[in-house]
């Protein structure tokens, strides 16, 4: 059985495989990609929590899909391994920054999520000129706040905001929030967000 995690992209066979009614924007957009994003929520009875994304920030819809209806799973890390930005829209700042970002993160297990990751995986134009570069990182060792600030400084020198989320199993937290924290930060978990003092304690 293929492991499925938050931020993974799932291609399905039909719009009918999704639970619930889809709004007009989703009915127009979704058939182009047949792809949904795994949400950070528990998987119950092989029903995968997923989200549908549109062109606008407010166009987000939560749904579920049965594991048996999944055709292909694409992880954010595969997008990096395949260097899919080489054949993508180079005029977008977030995509244009990826070769340099890749060099900075060459010793990290990192991936691309958000609208840029979705576009790289599906070839649908979901990213914009103003899109952030959403990244995920499976960290093996913790960083100090100063180390986090330095890494973010290096990632944010290419004219686009790079947002790096640290992944620990099913949990995740913002490296930027951690670098600026003076007390607690928000940790996203499968059962909802919690406040923690040290996000590196699994």
Automatic annotation (TrEMBL):
Residues 6-76 form the Phosphoribosyl-dephospho-CoA transferase MdcG N-terminal domain. Keywords: Nucleotidyltransferase, Transferase. It comes from the Bacteria. Signal peptide: none annotated. GO terms for molecular function: nucleotidyltransferase activity. Residues 89-199 form the Phosphoribosyl-dephospho-CoA transferase MdcG C-terminal domain. It holds the Pfam family MdcG_N. InterPro entries: Holo-ACP_synthase (IPR017557), MdcG_C (IPR049180), MdcG_N (IPR048903). This is Malonate decarboxylase holo-ACP synthase.
């Amino acid at each position: 059985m293929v492991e499925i995690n938050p931020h993974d992209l799932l291609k399905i066979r039909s719009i009918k495989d999704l639970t619930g009614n889809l709004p007009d924007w989703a009915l127009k957009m979704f058939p182009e990609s047949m792809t949904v994003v795994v949400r950070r929520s528990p998987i119950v009875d092989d029903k995968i929590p997923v989200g549908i994304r549109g062109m606008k920030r407010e166009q987000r819809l939560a749904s579920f899909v049965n594991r048996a209806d999944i055709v292909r799973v694409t992880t954010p890390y595969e997008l990096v391994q395949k260097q899919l930005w080489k054949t993508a829209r180079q005029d977008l700042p977030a995509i244009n920054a990826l070769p340099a970002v890749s060099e900075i993160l060459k010793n990290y297990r990192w991936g691309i999520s958000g609208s840029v990751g979705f576009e790289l995986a599906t070839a649908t134009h979901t990213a914009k000129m103003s899109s952030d570069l959403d990244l995920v990182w499976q960290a093996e060792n913790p960083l100090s706040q100063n180390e986090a600030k330095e890494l973010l400084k290096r990632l944010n020198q290419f004219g686009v905001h790079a947002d790096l989320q640290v992944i620990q199993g099913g949990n995740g937290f913002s490296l930027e929030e951690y670098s600026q924290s003076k007390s607690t930060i928000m940790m996203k978990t499968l059962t909802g967000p919690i406040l923690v003092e040290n996000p590196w304690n699994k």
